[in-house]
Amino acid sequence: MKTNKPVCVTGASGFIAAHIIRELLERGYNVRGTVRKSPENYPFLLGLPGAKERLELVKADLLDAGAYDRVVEGCDYVMHTASPYKINVKNPQIDLVDPAVTGTENVLESCLKSGSVKRLIFTSSIAAITDEPESTKVFTEKDWNIMSSLDRNPYHYSKTLAEREAWDFIMRKRQAFDLVVINPVLVIGPSLSPSLNTSNGMIRDIMSGVYPGIMDLNWGFVDVRDVAKAHILAMETDTASGRYICADKTMHMRELVTLLKSSGFDTYALPKVDLSGITGSLLMKALSFTQPKNTGMYIRTNIGRTLRYDNAKIMRELGLSFMTVRESMIDTVNDMVKWGHLPASKH
Ligand code: NDP
Predict the structure, then answer these.
(1) Helix, strand, coil % (nearest 5) of the chain?
(2) Domains identified in the chain and CATH numbers
(3) Rounded to two decimals, what is the model's pTM?
């Protein structure tokens, strides 16, 4: 074990954070998680094995300056995952950018004040690397998203600004503590809580007839349990440094639909018509203007483009291996059925 002191995890209620906490408890760590409501609202965390003895939940909001002082006090390691993950919002500045950036500043300031924090593990995203795949380019940790703005993929913008703020802060404060960043692609997998998060929600939508047809879109996928491991390896590996693209393979929407069909989910309302050719893509781009603003924007900046990235650094330096997308996808769907987000298959 790397530390006997509590490992702080911000945004404990979140899809990814809950798995980080489960994994930390499983490995014998003490954990201090931050939440926005009183602890009894999180039975799925309080019921985890080891939680009774070693999990403490404390209230903190990203926008409250100083709220994290008490939270990170005495900790060696902090994992900062809390950040709004929503695509369509009323006011991107207030709903996404402010909590992402101000929250990051607040957590960093508290880590600095603590005098105890050795390393902050920051949950960024592929969104801070690009919001528009280029079919001929392989993205690496050296790339930064310079395209997003409040009007263009604002979630991506919020993640880019927040991660930039974290690196700038560390430089300004002359590296008072380490910063290690995890940049996951689309995270899927079983949820520990009853709520449906944005990334699993996309799989639910694909299976519920929301998409008119198979579009020329592809995504990188990674299982939430692997993302949790990545955070812990980033803490436990002394030599960990910089950013880590956390991703298994990419998959075209056509392959995804085939995978779902061949995995026994063929009775769901999966898209049938192939709209992934040139005409289909033109049609989808036109139709994207009928979608909620940022969904439409996402379609227009991604359709017809192949996402490629290099995930070698995380495997080489942190020793992470990935479960297959098939296994992860099957677990995701079965879990959504379990929580009632999808009806049971008619097989
Ligand atoms: P969730 O929506 O499940 O979790 C988000 C967490 O942030 C929740 O705990 C939420 O608290 C908390 N949060 C939001 N706003 C505030 C606020 N103002 N003050 C305090 N806490 C707040 O998302 P995920 O678990 O999927 O995402 C976690 C992190 O991973 C985010 O930083 C996201 O950007 C990043 N990420 C996610 C990916 C994915 O595909 N899921 C991919 C790449 C990165 P509450 O429950 O109270 O709302």
Answers:
(1) 45, 15, 40
(2) 7-195+220-247+308-322 (3.40.50.720)
(3) 0.97
